[in-house]
């Protein structure tokens, strides 16, 4: 029996060493990679140290769209502002996930003057869009980021997947992203209803709103300490006014009174279907049209 435990201990020790070696290899290999904001869906690949930006875009895929295709370069050229985009698409742009991004950004001794945070009501109601989302799949391994995920109660499944995906063929063979946009010809009511059902997968509950509102307030407090102004924007879509929009606007008004944030409801500011790649994401032409609108309205 004693020999069994000795052999088991040796086996576990060797496997731990192998795992540590593999994780270290992944960490240092990824550190050598460089991506521009429009070449990756990752936030960590574009967040460095000791950098200053005029504008940061945060939120979900509605914010991410401004760094896809040629939109990022157009934003900087049109506004004359240096911009970093840490918004996440693919279901990873929840409030908890954005809080982690901002904490990481500041802990890396970075600074930003203004945050444009694209926000929708649905992110206040479901853990599937927050700590249980697969937002880590596109991120390289990073000890500080992992620690922040633990502190913010990211699900065990998401953390396991964070490590596991770094040894997949897709990750090891990753290339710079090229994004292709579509163009709608008309509004499809059935597709709109289906999309809303996906976003609002269960009836919204006030207790969930309060949970994620508290996390968003923590993000606002952090930005205030760092003297960063936040403007929250309900983005243009073809979905109509989303459920719980009034609840969100009431909360944002409270945050404006308390912290001096700005907020804008732009859900109906782009109405032409041809400006959208689907019913709630602007295509390249739509993003540029909206960027022109932003520069004159906020």
Helix tally? 11
- Major β-sheet annotation: 5 strands, parallel
Q: Uncertain runs with pLDDT below 50, 5 residues or more?
A: 4-28
Strand order of the largest sheet: 2-1-3-4-5
Q: What is the mean predicted local confidence, pLDDT?
A: 90
Strand content: 5-15%
Order of helices and strands: HEHHEHEHHHHHEHEEEH
Shape verdict: globular
Structural class: alpha/beta
Query: For this structure, what is the CATH class of the largest domain?
Result: Alpha Beta
Beta strand count: 7
Question: Any key phrases for this structure?
Answer:
298 residues; alpha/beta; Rossmann fold; 2 domains; 5-stranded parallel beta sheet; two-stranded antiparallel sheet; 11 helices; 7 strands; globular
